[in-house]
Structure formats: C-alpha cells, structure tokens
C-alpha cells in the first residue's frame, strides 16, 4: 500500500505552513522528512495520517493494506501519548478494544507486541513508573498491535536522552528491517534520517516546500554494517549542507517572532 | 584507545580542602502526620483550661467538656439523629440532583460547540448569584416543603460541578484524544476511556467544593425555614442562648464536613491511584 501526498498546502489562519508538497511513500519504504524548525513537518504528518484537513491538496492511499491490518496508518507520537491511568498492557490493548478480534486473538496480538518491544515483564506497570525510553516502547508496541502498513513517526526519539535514543534507534532498524512495514519518519535529527530512511524529503523553511528528495545510496543492510559510519556521516553532512542556511534563517525568524 | 582508570585519586599535597556549603534547604514543605492533631489538641486543652479557670464566660464560649456533654445528651435523647438525618437527606438529595445535572451539562459544554456557546454564557451570568437568595423565590414556586431547600442545594452544587467538569474536559491533553482518533476509536469510547478518566481529577476536586457548598446551603436553608435539621437546631439554640448546644451543632457540622472530606479522599485514592 502506497501513501501519496498530492499537492498538499496548509495554513493556520494567515500563516502559510505548507506549500504544494507532493511525494509518495511506496509499500515497505521508509521516508524521512527533515527541514528547519517550523517548516511544517509535523503538520504534514498529521495531514498524511488524516488528523488534519489540508487547506489544499489531498493525502491518498493506493493499493490495499496487508491482510489483517487493523489500522493501516498508525502514529508513533513524540510525547508517547500513553493513557496514564492504564497499565502498559491496557495501553497496548487500547486500539484493539473495538477491533473484531476474539479474546484469544487479542491476547496473542498483545503478547506479540509486548514481546517484540521487550515489555513482557512490564505489562502491569503504569506509564509513570517507566523511563522515557520504555514509555516510547509502549507507544511502539501499541502501534505494532494494530499491524500497520505504514508507521507515521513524529520525532519519536526527540524527547529522549542520547543513550536511550541510540538504543531505540537500534530497535527501529530491527523492526523495520524486513520491509513488511513502511514508515514516514519526521525528524530534525539528520543522523536518524540517514540511518533509517531509504529516501529523505528535505523541506524548506516556512512555508514548507520540497527542496529536494534525496535517495540514500546504501541498502539498509549496508547501513547496519560496522564500517558504514563514515559513509553515513558524509551523507549526514551533505544533508546538513542542504538545510543549514534555511535552518539559520528559520531560527532567526523564531527568535524575532 | 580510551585512557581508563577506576577513579580519580585526591592530590594530598595540594592546598587544604573545605566542603561546598549546602544551599538547597527549604522550599519543600513536607506533611507531618501528627502535627495537625497535636496542634488541635493543644488549642482544645488551652480552651478547656481557660474555661475551667473561669477566665471565659461560659455563656459566650462554653468549655469543650460542656460541648461534649451537650453532644452526648443530644445523642442519648435521639434529637441529634433526628436533626442529622433531616440534614443528610436534604444534602444527599440536593447534591445528587445538582451533581448529575452538572456532570451532564459540563460534559456537553466540554464536547459540543453549541452547548459551550450557550452554556458558558448562562453559567457566567448565574454562577455568581448567592443561591440562598433564591430560596424565597423557590418557596413561592415549589411550596414550603422540602423541595425549595433541596432545589437551593441542587442549584448551588450544579454550577460548581458544571464548571469543574468542563474545566476538566478542557484539561484532558489533546494529544491523547488525537491518539485515540488516530486508532479510529469511536466517539463514545473516547469519551468513556480518555475524556472521563482525564477529567476525573478536576471532577473530584469539584466534589470537594460542592460538598462544602451543600453543607453551607443546607444550614442556611434550614435556618430560614425548617423545624428539623442541624441548621434549625443551631438557630434555635442561639435564640435560647444555649451556646453549649449551639457549639455542639457547629462541632457536628465540622465532623460531618470532615467525614465527607475523608470520603472524597478515599474516592481519590481509589480512582486516581495512577497519578
């Protein structure tokens, strides 16, 4: 199943946020969206996921979702968006409560999601008892439970410390390695973009327009090799050179706002 | 290669060291379990001593022992339970009606644009009116029975409840609602599983306020027109200069308020254990 952004523009009141953004995420593909602060990355993701109606253009799906997918477009949120009054298990079960599953199927789905994210021993814990990294794992387990076709990830690591970020990054690489799920990965972190994405959509500063779509010239397996660090750093440098001036301008704009 | 060592050794030959002064004290008040009770016992002891020593005229301020005796006699005669049961009936009925209506209207204001536009205007206009001022009008409308007293309490409870409920609904983090929407969770399930528990802290805080409002209004209403009830009893005692009985009524009101507060504490502990 492909996800297509077709000439999407958006504005909040008099503020133009996105301007004529078009690209496609093909089945199993990981596309990162990067750009300066305030360029509309998260707004674009909300539009792609159907949480925000664009002022112009449309987000479209092409093809059928994989069999058994309960929520083809599934978000992983920056702030985890866990229900604090529910346990880990209840949070993972939350999107399944209204799914047409038997009790046994539901239990199996939850157990599988908890196992894949290393949360089996924490199923009875409440979010406040968990570290930031573990909370985001719960958010990922909840997303996996509905068997998405495409994960919509809105800066999922930005609220975490660097060590936890590194550990979760390894988890993401593992979860997305087999190409069964695609992902749109919004981030301001270029290292995450080049390590994870097959292509990187570079947006200009506000109103966000597509400045360039960069294809990462390495396979996912090559990027995981121990000697790939230097090449990834070089790619990261190239991406930075694309957005550096706009990032500086955007920062000055924010400071003067 | 990393230059590694288990820990840094102190240089003994260097200048003498001194500890860094601690500057982080204060601004973190902690709760003491017994301090409040000890203070209360001390105040009662001083009060009793002053009364026993004849320093205070018992007509104006009876000693705690005299108040305790008055409560005991009221309990033994059955008058205490008669007055208390009338007050509890009025508070309970009025509070339940006002709370039910307030929760419904509060949720409607919190969830519906139209209800918000209309509801907030009405609540803003009517909330500041002292509800006891409406009692004569309610007596005209509903007669001189229990209805006007219960309606006064229900009105007082309604506005505070509606405000705390829609404030609670407004305070539910929007990201949780968007998360639920992103999983196609139906509207009614979002209300039940996200908005209701998210608004519950504010709703329970509202209950604490409305319990006080109900107590205040029942006493006022009973003072205006009732034969039985703690308010009527306090007024009668005052008219007869029976200050020990008057203060017995006040102590019973205080104990009733404490019991309701404890009940709400229990509810909070049970329902908000996740906080």
How does this structure look, described?
The complex is a heterodimer of chains A (257) and B (275). Chain A is of the alpha/beta class and 257 residues long. Chain A has two domains: 2-66 and 152-256, Rossmann fold; 83-148, no CATH class. Helices cover 38% and strands 23% of the residues of chain A. Chain A has helices at 41-48, 88-93, 103-116, 132-145, 162-176, 190-196, 220-224, 229-256; strands at 2-12, 15-25, 30-34, 56-62, 73-76, 150-154, 182-186, 199-203, 210-215. In chain A, the strands form two sheets. Chain A has a six-stranded mixed β-sheet with strand order 5-6-7-3-8-9, sandwiched between helices. In chain A, strands 2-1-4 form a three-stranded antiparallel β-sheet. In chain A, a hairpin with a 2-residue loop joins β1 and β2 (15-25). In chain A, α3 packs across α4. The longest helix of chain A is centred in the C-terminal third of the chain and has 28 residues, at 229-256. Chain A is globular and about 50 Å long. Chain A starts with a strand and ends with a helix. With 275 residues, chain B is mostly helical. Chain B contains ten helices and no strands. Chain B is flat, with a radius of gyration of 27 Å. The model of chain B has no long low-confidence stretch (mean pLDDT 91). Chain B has a single domain (71-271), classed as MetI-like fold (Orthogonal Bundle), CATH 1.10.3720.10. The interface between A and B is medium-sized, with 21 and 19 residues.
Question: What key phrases describe this protein's structure?
Answer:
heterodimer, A: 257 residues, alpha/beta, Rossmann fold, six-stranded mixed sheet, three-stranded antiparallel sheet, 23% strand, globular, B: 275 residues, mainly alpha, MetI-like fold, 72% helix, flat
Strand-residue proportion of chain B: under 5%
The largest inter-chain interface, given as chain pair and residues per side, is: A-B, 21 and 19 residues
* CATH architectural grouping of the largest domain in chain A: 3-Layer(aba) Sandwich
The run of helices and strands of chain B is HHHHHHHHHH
The portion of residues assigned to helices of chain B is over 70%
User: Largest sheet of chain B, if any?
Assistant: none
Q: Please name the CATH topology of chain B.
A: MetI-like fold
| Shape by Cα distribution of chain A | globular
Note the gap between the termini of chain A: 41 Å
Number of strands of chain A: 9
The mean pLDDT of chain A is 90
The low-confidence runs of chain A, each spanning 5 or more residues with pLDDT under 50, are none
Overall CATH architecture of chain B? Orthogonal Bundle
Strand order of the largest sheet of chain A: 5-6-7-3-8-9
What is the share of helical residues of chain A? 25-40%
Task: Please write the CATH class name of the largest domain in chain A.
Answer: Alpha Beta
What would you call the quaternary organization?
A: heterodimer
Supply the CATH superfamily name of the largest domain in chain A: P-loop containing nucleotide triphosphate hydrolases
């Amino acid at each position: 199943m492909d996800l297509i952004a077709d000439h999407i523009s958006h504005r909040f009141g008099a503020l133009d946020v996105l301007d004529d953004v078009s690209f496609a995420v093909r089945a199993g593909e990981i596309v990162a969206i990067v750009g300066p602060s305030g360029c509309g990355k998260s707004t674009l993701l909300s539009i792609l996921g159907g949480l925000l109606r664009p002022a112009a253009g449309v987000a479209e799906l092409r093809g059928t979702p994989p069999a058994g997918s309960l929520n083809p477009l599934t978000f992983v949120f920056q702030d985890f968006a866990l229900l604090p009054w529910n346990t880990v298990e209840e949070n993972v079960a939350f999107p399944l409560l209204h799914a047409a599953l038997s009790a046994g199927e539901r239990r199996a789905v939850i157990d599988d999601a908890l196992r894949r994210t290393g949360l089996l021993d924490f199923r009875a814990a409440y979010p406040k008892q968990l570290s930031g990294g573990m909370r985001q794992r719960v958010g990922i387990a909840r997303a996996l439970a509905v068997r998405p076709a495409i994960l919509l990830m809105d800066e999922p690591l930005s609220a975490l410390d660097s060590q936890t970020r590194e550990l979760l990054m390894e988890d993401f690489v593992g979860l997305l390695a087999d190409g069964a799920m695609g992902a749109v990965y919004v981030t301001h972190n270029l290292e995450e973009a080049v390590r994870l994405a097959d292509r990187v959509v570079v947006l200009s500063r506000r109103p966000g327009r597509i400045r360039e779509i960069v294809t990462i010239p390495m396979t996912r397996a090559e990027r995981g090799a121990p000697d790939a660090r230097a090449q990834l750093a070089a790619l990261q440098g190239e991406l930075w050179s694309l957005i550096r001036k706009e990032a500086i301008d955007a920062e000055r704009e924010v400071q003067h706002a | 290669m990393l230059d590694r060592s288990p820990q840094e050794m102190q240089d003994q030959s260097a200048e003498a060291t001194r500890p860094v002064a601690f500057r982080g004290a204060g601004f973190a008040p902690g709760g003491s379990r017994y301090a409040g009770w000890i203070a209360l016992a001390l105040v009662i002891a001083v009060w009793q001593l002053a009364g026993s020593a004849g320093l205070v005229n018992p007509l104006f301020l009876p000693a705690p022992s005299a108040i305790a005796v008055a409560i005991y006699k009221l309990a033994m005669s059955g008058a205490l339970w008669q007055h208390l049961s009338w007050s509890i009936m009025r508070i309970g009925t009025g509070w339940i009606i006002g709370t039910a209506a307030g929760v419904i209207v509060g949720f409607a204001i919190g969830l519906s644009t139209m209800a918000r536009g209309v509801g907030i205007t009405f609540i803003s206009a009517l909330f500041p009116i002292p509800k006891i001022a409406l009692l004569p009008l309610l007596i005209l409308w509903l007669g001189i029975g229990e209805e006007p007293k219960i309606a006064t309490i229900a009105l007082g409870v309604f506005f505070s409840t509606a405000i705390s409920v829609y404030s609670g609904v407004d305070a539910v983090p929007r990201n949780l609602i968007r998360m639920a929407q992103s999983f196609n969770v139906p509207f009614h399930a979002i209300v039940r599983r996200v908005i209701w528990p998210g608004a519950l802290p504010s709703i329970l805080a509202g209950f604490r306020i409305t319990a006080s409002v109900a107590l205040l209004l029942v006493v006022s209403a009973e003072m205006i027109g009732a034969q039985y009830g703690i308010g009527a009893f306090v007024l009668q005692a005052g008219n007869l200069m029976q200050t020990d009985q008057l203060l017995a009524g006040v102590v019973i009101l205080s104990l009733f308020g404490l019991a309701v507060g404890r009940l709400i504490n229990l509810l909070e502990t049970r329902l908000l254990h996740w906080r």
